[in-house]
Write a structure and sequence with these properties.
With about 500 residues, the protein is α+β, with helices and mostly antiparallel strands. The protein has 16 helices and 16 strands. It binds adenosine-5'-diphosphate and magnesium ion (MG). The site of magnesium ion has 2 residues, from loops.
């Protein structure tokens, strides 16, 4: 099975199956208050401390639309290059759940706020466009807590009423890699615009995963299963892998796949049936009589458009054109808005090529090792830029720079100060270097003879020796030049 390439085929008894995936991503709107009430939305608060009478569905309470959340949804729609619907409707989706006190969820069904759009994935072999079907706003439910008491289930309503954007993709995804890139790209776009923090550990981004399989070359889609509420990319991939293989087995054994809703058990790494789709489907959607249709003016939409920052795709294009970065480098540098800011800060005063290498190499390795985000980088853009200039003007060698870099991480220390304090300045005085070279040549007369009789590979040995006696500080380029003359 080739599951980590863009073509993801499952082979059984000489038949190849293609996997088709569509995602319904639930992205929590970055907003201080809820979709229809003024309760706060802070993560990790004391249970039931952020619940108003509206969120607890007390009789007679009326929802009031939070304009900020509407703006956030429209901005996200702009980021997805999507159609903004000037008229949308909030419906009631009726179902019973212990943590849904209203007995229905206010959501958008036939008339969502955002229509068709697209997300571009940077695949190794070029770009792939994934269609967006729609984006609608809805409220989140509360949370049932089953593990605090052997007999009872507790309910925490802090999340009840929090605004979610459900972003529904077309069934355009074909591999686990594409799912990974799609989620990351969505997340990146929303973080650029500031409409969702994309924090998967805190549940700000989760997805229902729809999977079907079909024989390679077949035109029609197979019957899909929907796996509910998966909260990490890794689990999405594991769930898809399991589910696609299960469906292939069903078909190979002569059966048919039932359309159903399934759960992914992360401990057993398998999906299990929750309910068949038919039973679940009758939500008796109808327009919420407490809320008028939402109508947006052109002015409202245009004001938001004006304030959308440069997005990752455009930034990537600019980086490639202006700074001559490779597509690969540009991708890495734009994928996260904070990384792109850091990069642009460094190159204000430093060489682009060296900066790119140091950020994607040493800096990323350091952040990785310390498990830090770039915004908490122990080395500021300003000081990294200084270090890069010291390499560029020959004050220190690339090798010494690595040592200096490590020392800088200990409290964002100015590299100039480290070099002076530790005497790490590169030796570039030809006279001084000649002394060192003479010493090495004198002490290795045998090797000099061998070199002169044709063993040219030994040149590296001499360079190495000079570097060694200089404590790594000799300017390697000058050492090369002087040595060449000496050994002629
Ligand atoms: P529902 O409310 O029934 O879940 P939605 O329209 O909200 O329906 O979502 C359907 C999701 O399923 C979309 O993401 C879509 O891309 C995906 N999908 C539809 N048909 C298939 C299929 N045959 N295989 C895989 N995914 C599919
Ligand atoms: Mg759905």
């Amino acid at each position: 099975m080739k599951k980590n390439q863009s073509e993801y085929l499952i082979k059984r008894n000489d038949t190849e199956y293609e996997v088709v995936i569509g995602l319904e991503v639930h992205a929590q709107v970055l907003s201080k208050s809820k979709l229809f009430s003024s309760s706060p939305t802070k993560f990790g608060a004391e249970p039931n401390s952020q619940v108003s009478l509206v969120d607890a569905a007390f009789p007679g309470m009326l929802p009031v639309i939070n304009e900020f959340c509407i703006k956030q949804a429209v901005k996200t729609g702009i980021g997805l290059k999507a159609k903004i619907n000037k008229r949308s409707i909030f419906d009631r989706k009726n179902y019973f759940y212990a943590d849904l006190p209203q007995g229905y969820q206010i959501s958008q069904y036939k008339n969502p706020i955002i229509g068709e759009g697209e997300v571009i994935l940077d695949m190794p072999n070029g770009e792939k466009v994934v269609g967006i079907e729609r984006l609608h706003l809805e409220q989140d439910a509360g949370k049932s807590i089953h593990d605090m008491d052997p007999q009872n289930t507790f309910v925490d309503l802090n999340r009840s009423g929090v605004a979610l954007m459900e972003i529904v993709s077309k069934p355009d995804l074909r591999s686990l890699d594409e799912v990974n890139l799609y989620i990351k790209k969505l997340r990146s776009i929303m973080r650029y615009i500031g409409t969702c923090d994309g924090n998967m550990q805190e549940g700000s981004l989760r997805a229902d995963v729809n999977v079907s399989v079909r024989k390679k070359g077949q035109k029609n889609y197979g019957t899909r299963c929907e796996i509910k509420n998966v909260n990490s990319i890794k689990f999405m991939q594991m769930a898809i892998d399991y589910e696609a293989n299960r469906q292939v087995d069903v078909i190979e054994e002569g059966g048919v796949v039932d359309q159903e809703t399934r759960l992914f058990d992360t401990k057993k790494n398998e999906t299990r049936s929750m309910r068949s789709k038919e039973d679940a489907h009758d939500y008796r959607y109808f327009p919420d009589p407490d809320l008028l249709p939402l109508e947006l003016t052109d002015e409202f939409i245009n004001d938001l458009k004006k304030n959308i920052p440069e997005l990752p795709d455009e930034k990537k294009k600019r980086f490639i054109e202006k700074f001559k970065l490779s597509s690969y480098e540009a991708n890495i540098l734009v994928s996260d808005i904070e990384t792109s800011k850091y990069f642009e800060e460094v190159i204000k005063k430093s060489d682009v090529k060296i900066s790119t290498n140091w950020i994607t190499g040493e800096l990323f390795a350091l952040l990785n090792e310390k498990n830090l985000e770039i915004i908490d980088s122990p080395i500021s853009a300003k000081n990294l830029s200084k270090l890069i200039n010291l390499i560029k003007d020959g004050t220190i060698s690339g090798k010494i720079a690595k040592t200096v870099f490590e020392m800088m991480a200990d409290g964002d220390i100015d590299p100039q100060k480290i070099i002076e304090d530790k005497g790490l300045k590169q030796q570039s005085d030809p006279k001084e270097l000649e002394k060192l070279i003479n010493k090495v040549v004198n002490e290795n007369q045998e090797k000099v003879k061998e070199y002169k009789s044709g063993k040219e590979k030994l040149f590296g040995f001499f360079v190495g020796q000079v570097m060694k006696v200089s404590g790594g500080k000799a300017n390697p380029q000058l050492v090369n030049e002087i040595l060449k003359k000496k050994l002629k």
